[in-house]
Amino acid sequence: MTTECLFCQIAEGTTPSDIVYQDNATIAFRDINPQAPTHVLIIPREHIESFHHVRDAQLWYAILQTAHKVAEQEGISGGYRIVSNVGTAAGQSVEHVHIHLLGGRQMSWPPG
Ligand code: 5GP
Ligand code: ZN
Q1: What is the residue-averaged pLDDT of the chain?
Q2: CB atoms inside a 10 Å sphere around CB 28
Q3: Nearest-CA residue for atom 18 of ligand 1
Q4: How many Å apart are CA 111 and CA 36, to the nearest integer?
């Protein structure tokens, strides 16, 4: 827990969010500025700066399992996108690792 980290605050419950799933290791909540009909962020409770800093395979698997569960729960398991921005060049704006789960519309490629 890092007190100044927004996503740690969401994990702690000190900043409100629309949580769609949570377990011992992970939390999934709706993005405040959705880019698709379903846009959920999946984070570990543990503060880790980005995907590039994740060294715990079990934790990464837990994050992916949560994405899988939320995709089922949201009814988008037939087609969705998961993405994790790393660093400023990729547009990462919150330095607590997160996966974006996007679905409910046709996706284009390449992403911007
Ligand atoms: P990034 O740009 O780091 O890949 O993604 C950060 C995401 O967090 C953005 O999509 C942004 O809309 C979302 N976000 C920023 N502040 C908040 C907030 O206070 N609550 C929620 N639910 N999402 C947020
Ligand atoms: Zn954090």
Answers
A1: 97
A2: 25
A3: 32
A4: 13
